[in-house]
Amino acid sequence: MRRLRVQLTVLLALLGMLVVAWGATIFLGARDAARTSQSLQSTIDRFDQLRRRSGELGGSFVSIETGRRAYLLTGDPATYQAQVRAERRSAQLFGRVRELAAPWPTLDPVIDGVADRYRSWLLAGRRELAARQTGGAGAAGLVAADRLADRQFQALRTQQADLEGRLADLQTVTARGQGRTYTAAQSLAVRTAVMVLAAVALITFYLRRAVGAPADALRSASGRLAGGDLETPVELGVENELGAVASDLETMRRRLAGRMEALERLRHLSAQVVGATSLQRLAEVALDGLQPEVGATRAALGAVHRNGQLRLRALAGFPDPGVADDIVKADQELRRLLPMAALRAGQVVGMPDVDRLVKPEILRELAARMGIRSLALVPLVSRGSFVGLLGLCWTEPHRLDREQEALLGLAGNQIAGALAAALRLEEAERAAGEARAVFYAIADGVLLTDPFGRVTAVNRALEALTGWTEEEARGRPYAEVLPVNDQQGGAVDLLTRYGRKVPVAVSSAPILDPRSRVVGGVDVVRDVSREREIDEVKSALISTVSHELRTPLTLIHGFAELLVLRDMSVERQRTAAEEILEASRRLARLIDDLLSVSRMESGRLVLDPRPLDLAAVVERILSPFRAMADRHTLRAKLPGALPVLWGDPDKVEQILTNLVGNAIKYSPEGGEVLVTVEHGEDSVQVSVRDQGIGMSPRDMGQLFEKFYRVDRDEVRRAGGTGLGLYITKRLVEMHGGRIWAESRPGVGSVFTFTLPTSGELAGSGAR
Predict the structure, then answer these.
(1) What is the dihedral of CA 623, 625, 629, 631, to 10 degrees?
(2) Taking the alpha carbons of 191, 194, 198, 203 in that order, is the dihedral positive or negative?
(3) Helix 77-100 to helix 107-144 angle, to the nearest 10 degrees?
(4) Is the Cβ–Cβ distance between 256 and 397 less than 8 Å?
(5) Residue range 474-523, pLDDT digits in tens
(6) Beta pairing partners, 449
(7) Cβ(686)–Cβ(675) under 8 Å?
(8) Which of 353, 380, 524, 719 has the most CB atoms in a 10 Å sphere around its CB?
(9) Helix (H, G, I), strand (E, B) or coil at 471
(10) How far apart are CA 179 and CA 196, in angstroms?
(11) DSSP string covering 184-231, please?
(12) Residue 178: helix, strand or coil by DSSP?
């Protein structure tokens, strides 16, 4: 292979010939000039030195340019130092040239022009060198794109050539000044000059062919690379050092082109992972983006949970998704296998051959089930925090090279950011879902409005209160969806969509953003119908109890006063005492009813179950009523055989006493009161029928509620607190039975209750 040094050897030989020829000319000229004048010889010597120093100066320019270009291409510090040494040499030569050119003042402007152009060229070149040192080849390429240094160098070469021309002219003038005495020397010089010119022409042609053209092609190729052209191949066509440089440039071009393609795919991957809205999609996008680069066919994505533990969140590329369960089962073994210290430090860990790793049998089976032979663990670190792990899997052994590790590290940074964003989105959606669930499930009505008073959301409770669905209410004015009016006493009534008034309590508050600006409002609406009903019941209780207490107390007080203040016969005294006794019994019953209600509602009233003969209880209850109710006929209809029940005899007697007493009380005209007992497979049914005033269906709606009394004159005249049927219903239910009523106005009523034959009672327990 021909080398550039061979070519330079030939060039030096030619230059040697040129020097020999030139020396011969100088020698002959000097010999002839010595015959005329010693001063002429000194002039010629100075001129000769000037020419040599000028030529050396031009050579130093070439050395500087060569060093600069080499450093821009390779970044080798040695080339940079060579250029610095060439600059120092040029400064010395400039001083020497000025010193030698002192006898010829006409050369000063030319030398100054060369010096100015030289400084401009150095300044432009140093800008490129500085960009190369600070920003690398790319930055230097951007600075060199305007080719200012190249233009300055060409201008310098032109001025250098002009200087050479001026020196040649001065040489001619000097030669002519020798006069006829130097005719022979001039003739010899001319012949030598012709020879020198021929040699220069030959050398120039040779350099152009052997060095200049390849160098220009190499410079053009380097310029294209510096300009970002990675598509055009670098082809020189010579087999020397320049050809080797061209081959290296071509290799560099191919590698840069591959890097650019990889970076482009990485950029595309970054765009894809940013758009991934779920962890499953993120794993799929990461695998699709990295598979062309590293050849992985499967991927597993893990994320750090709130408790700091790494958990599997998504799989991609696995033909059997069921391996996720196997991975979860082997969680503890996998944790011991993972090099968490290296991963948390951000290091990509490759496992070229999984089969060679020492691992438990469960992990060997897991690897076989997953169908993987090689594994790469890519840590996902976002803002200095380890947020997850991407596992890339190969079905054959695979070893990562340095470029693949670097690429996976860069890709991991992109995927980590997307993973952190996806986890934040997942957490926000979870929190929003919980808040939404709480919002819609809260028992009180909630209404949200925007800053302009338009409804943005209502929950289910408010839909039930107002009659507006959320879809219908959204965007409507607040006052249209939630019309309320204040009543006396501070109460508020809500007018529903269908015109019904509902007593409510409304709490309102503004919604503020972090800057304390109002961005909406929230209203909590609570249905206080029950509270208002309780207040009404309390009022009714106070009124009823006061009335019921006043009546017997008035009787007791009146008859007691008669007994004390008046003399009455024994018969009248006995009648007054009987009235006092009856009033006290009525007062005791009222107090017993109130105590029973209190014990029931506090849970202190329990049953004392025992074997119970229901037929005997019925007869025992009817017997005293027959003696007192002279206008009523009390009759019992009992089957031939009744099963023995388990129940509290006292409470069953209280149930029958209340029902039979009501039947007599609300039958002011008399009539028959019939108690019927029937038994089925698992219960006994007891009915109390009267022929009294009866009730309408509207009056029976709240029949078994506390303090409820039918609003009729006959009922008001009969008196009562409205607690008897409430107590009766609770006692029946405590026995595990149920009670209901049937009635027609003017015909009478039938109250029926059941008692189970089972021994299990709802309210049994020790007293």
Answers:
(1) -70
(2) positive
(3) 170
(4) no
(5) 999 988 888 887 655 456 888 888 888 888 888 889 988 888 898 898 98
(6) 455, 521
(7) yes
(8) 380
(9) helix
(10) 23
(11) HHHHHHHHHHHHHHHHHHHHHHHHIIIIIHHHHHHHHHHHHHHTT--S
(12) coil
Over residues 93-137, the pLDDT tens digits come to 888 888 888 877 888 888 888 888 888 888 888 887 887 778 777
State the Cα–Cα distance between residues 439 and 447, nearest whole angstrom: 10
Distance (Å, whole) CA 121 – CA 110:
16
Dig out the tokens for 297 from the structure. 């066919």
Contact call for residues 649 and 612 (beta carbons, < 8 A): yes
Task: Give residue 322's pLDDT.
Answer: 80
Residue 735 CA to residue 652 CA, distance in Å, equals: 9
How far is the C-alpha of 388 from the C-alpha of 267, rounded, in Å?
A: 21
- The angle, 0 to 180 degrees and rounded to 10, between the axes of the packed helices 279-294 and 402-441 is 170
How is the chain split among helix, strand and coil, in percent rounded to 5?
A: 60, 15, 25
pLDDT digits (tens, 9 = 90+) for 601-655: 666 677 788 888 888 888 888 888 887 777 888 899 888 777 778 888 888 888 8
Token pair, residue 724, equals 């008897």
With H, G, I as helix, E, B as strand and everything else as coil, classify residue 444. coil
Contact assessment for residue 649 and residue 618, using Cβ atoms and an 8 Å cutoff: no
d(CA 206, CA 184): 33
pLDDT at 538: 67
pLDDT confidence of residue 574: 78
Selection from 161, 159, 158, 130 nearest residue 144 by Cα: 130
223, β-bridge pairs: none
Looking at residue 765, its pLDDT comes to 44
Structure tokens that stand for 726 in this block = 């409430």
End-to-end CA distance of the chain: 120
With tokens 């008669």, the residue in question is 562
What does DSSP assign to residue 499?
Answer: S
Residue 766: pLDDT band (50, 70, 90) is very low
Integer Cα distance of 586 and 584 in angstroms: 5
Rg of the chain taking only CA atoms, in angstroms: 58
Q: What is the DSSP letter of 706?
A: T
